[in-house]
Design goal:
Length: 266
Amino acid sequence: MDASNPSRRREMVRKTVYKRLNKPLPTGAGPARGSKPEIEAFFNSPQIHGLKLQICDIGRRLWQRTYVDGNGGNIAIRVGKDIALCTPTLVSKGFMKPEDLCLVDFKGNQLFGAKRRTSEILMHLQIMKRQPRAVAVVHCHPPHATGFAVAGMVPPTCLIPEFEVFVSAAIAPYRTPGTPELGRQIAGLVDKHNVILMANHGVVSWSHNNVEDAYFKMEILESYCRTILVASQLSRTPNIISPAQLKDLLKIKKNLGIPDPRYGRK
Ligand SMILES: [Zn+2]
């Protein structure tokens, strides 16, 4: 279906809205196609309210752990084939209310919500479009991981099992925040990686499970980067997880459905 045609796009949105509301598509008389009342009902439905609460909870945890600063960071959840729920712009992620959140289509057009959607939504949507398994995306600026991103470094691997199993990290070059080019650079990495360090900016993660899982990747990455910095202060060469031990960890990772470019490598 040609999503660039506005009436086709409205039709796609409408179909998704009805699917999510578990209602059959009305035929003949009924609300106008993709009309505001339909979208409003979807936005205010109990299913979407539950997801709004999850986003507010994750925002609070990001802020409490100092992974976001000022109005920084943003969160999005896929709520249909071509619709996402996301955080607003110019609001601290630590103090969001469910009514602050926004509904957008996959072109980034705001469908509903009193506040304006985050300017970085294009990046989230480009990840979801490129990686059909991505149901949630979290972006933030955790200081230790962002330090690695500023240094242009992906953290070294084979040091701690948690990181090996749950995270597959890569780094994308710096591009101006909010531009399609930044999203393009990141989207090019999400088939084999679930955490992307954004050079001179921060980190973005996606999950095929839920938004808390995408957030967990941030905790694991940030803790890992901090531990590496501590280990580097000790005047000893760190011990490394052996190739045979790594093979066992990658087996667990594959069973969890987490991508990794090392599968099948000798
Ligand atoms: Zn950012």
